[in-house]
Design a protein that fits this description.
The complex is a heterodimer of chains A (118) and B (110). With 118 residues, chain A is an alpha+beta fold. In chain A, 46% of the residues lie in helices and 25% in strands. Chain A has a three-stranded antiparallel β-sheet with strand order 2-3-6. The radius of gyration of chain A is 19 Å and the shape is extended. Chain A starts with a strand and ends in a 9-residue tail after the last helix. Chain B is α+β, with helices and mostly antiparallel strands and 110 residues long. In chain B, a hairpin with a 3-residue loop joins strand 2 and strand 3 (61-68). In chain B, strands 2-3-6 form a three-stranded antiparallel β-sheet. Chain B has a two-stranded antiparallel sheet with strand order 4-5. The relative contact order of chain B is 0.10. In chain B, helix 1 (15-25) packs across helix 2 (31-50). The longest helix of chain B has 20 residues, at 31-50. Classes of the chains: A alpha+beta (118), B alpha+beta (110). At the A-B interface, strand 1, helix 1, helix 2, strand 2 and strand 3 of A face strand 1, helix 1, helix 2, strand 2 and strand 3 of B.
Chain lengths: 118, 110
């Protein structure tokens, strides 16, 4: 199952006691606040979860993976995420179960959790 | 984004600063409730990843797991050979809206 904004709203409704409208608005505000900061180049550190940072990438030569034709990749600013040690550990500790569930062979080729038919 | 105190944008925004900003925009909620809600959201997101669920936030991005194959490595201090088991690691892919908004700023700056 995929966690979406609607699901996060339901969590706030059920666990924090916000009403449905407040919960929906809160989820929007939460992500919009982070977008606004990242837009300004600010790093966001969420302890126990991870950090979102903005990095400036230099222009570099690349290739069209389908045709092999060389293309120029322009300079750009991108968002990166680093999971905290705590989150990494929690996920890694559950990796045996995850491999059973998601299938390690499948996972090596595709990204786990994504629809298999995608 | 106008804030009541309109402090200059810091280089690093911490969770408590993010909580304060959201509280300023949601005056009907107590600071304590905003803090609880932010922690609840982050814990829900963490639990999703631990359970192998993926997260998709339209306009922000998606968080999924990536597989890391088992490998032989060395303890850099002792040179001793160690076995690193297979594992999953969280991976973030920015959404189109976030990607555009962040990159647009770099064009303005240049």
């Amino acid at each position: 199952m995929t966690v979406t904004k609607a699901e996060l709203g339901n969590t706030l409704f059920g666990e924090v006691g916000l009403n449905k409208r407040e919960a929906k608005e809160f989820v929007e505000t939460f992500f919009e606040s982070m977008r606004c900061s990242l837009e300004r180049g600010t790093t966001i550190k969420l302890s126990g979860f991870g950090s979102f940072a903005v990095r400036d990438k230099k222009p570099r030569p690349g290739r069209n993976p389908q045709t092999g034709a060389p293309v120029a990749i322009s300079a750009r600013r991108v968002v990166t995420f680093r999971a905290s040690q705590k989150l990494k550990q929690r996920v890694a500790q559950n990796s045996f179960e995850l491999a059973q569930q998601l299938g390690a062979d499948q996972a090596a080729k595709t990204k786990p959790g994504e629809p298999k038919s995608a | 984004m106008p804030t009541p105190h309109s402090k200059p944008e810091p280089v690093v925004l911490t969770k408590s600063e993010l909580v304060a900003r959201i509280a300023a925009q949601q005056p009907q909620l107590l600071l304590h409730d905003v803090e609880l809600a932010v922690n609840t959201l982050l814990e829900r997101l963490s639990l999703a990843l631990v359970a192998g669920e993926c997260i998709e936030i339209r306009g922000f991005g998606s968080l999924t797991l990536r597989y890391r194959a088992p490998r032989a490595a060395r303890n850099p201090k002792t040179g001793e050979k160690i076995w690193v088991a297979e594992k999953y690691v969280p991976y973030f892919k920015p959404g189109a809206n976030l990607r555009k908004r962040v990159d647009r700023q770099s064009e303005v700056a240049q």
